């Protein structure tokens, strides 16, 4: 099909839902803006800047606490999701929603936003995101799950009636910040490497796996002991690496990484922990062709920086 792109039009959108915060018609002062941000943060609501842009205030605390309507994961603008879908459907052209963050304590809003879309997102999409997250997220003093990828996208292909025919995940070809997430973790308390390495070393690994791979405590690996932080952050009392590792293994199995593929996968992770200090120049290539290479066999990767709609006709 031919793709047609246009600026978001007011004719293909409906009037925004009423909100408690008044939208100014002209430039506002810093004090007014800060007061507005505080109001939407306290109420868990979004602030519409224009027909195609909305602002929400989120931290790891808002992601861990239920919202005003019982939703979890953080505050998102469900009305913006609906308008984007209506715009794409009515004009029969591709649509794009970009989720941006402006501070280091921002949680990932991708999964919560997918849940607000007026589309039937397959459950395997969330499973794949759960399997991918430990590869690209790490614990920091400011965020229990800070993403280190330059971009992550979800693309939908659906009919004009809203029937989803395909969903794909996309990691930017710019790759991961392996330096911050593995090779050069700050020597400060509160920092950890990518979550996947700690999941490998938990009790979720079978005795046979631990013996075959000669797995040790996290403190025995030079890549992991720089910050002397090996456990989940204390400000999340319910966080548990062993339980998360079990969920991670279940997600991998659900998307087809099991048996020989799973053995190869954990072997690569163990090898990175042992050999990476000696072969630093090759680690980037190993990550791309190893664990994440296995993921590429299970999901379709596209070069993208946003959640995209694709109209099929």
Any key phrases for this structure?
four-stranded mixed sheet; 13% strand; alpha+beta; two-stranded antiparallel ribbon; disordered N terminus; 8 strands; EC 2.4.1.16; chitin synthase activity; chitin synthase; transmembrane; 313 residues; cell membrane
Walk me through the structure.
With 313 residues, this protein is α+β, with helices and mostly antiparallel strands. Among the domains are: 11-93, no CATH class; 184-296, no CATH class. It has twelve helices and eight strands. The protein has helices spanning 30-43, 60-64, 78-91, 110-116, 123-136, 178-183, 195-200, 207-213, 241-254, 260-275, 280-289, 291-296, and strands at residues 47-50, 53-55, 95-97, 137-140, 143-147, 152-159, 164-171, 307-312. The strands form three sheets. It has a four-stranded mixed sheet, with helices on one face. Strand 1 and strand 2 (53-55) form a beta hairpin. Helix 5 (123-136) packs across helix 9. It is globular. The relative contact order is 0.13.
- Specify Rg, calculated over alpha carbons: 21 Å
Shape: globular
Q: Per DSSP, what share of the residues sits in E-state strands of 2 or more residues?
A: 5-15%
Instruction: List the total number of helices.
Output: 12
- Main β-sheet description: 4 strands, mixed
Major β-sheet strand ordering: 3-8-6-7
The counted number of beta strands is 8
- What is the H-and-E element order? HEEHHEHHEEEEHHHHHHHE
Residue windows where pLDDT falls under 50 for at least 5 positions = 1-22, 293-308
Q: Pairing-aware structural class of the strands and helices? A: alpha+beta
- What's the rounded overall pLDDT mean? 80
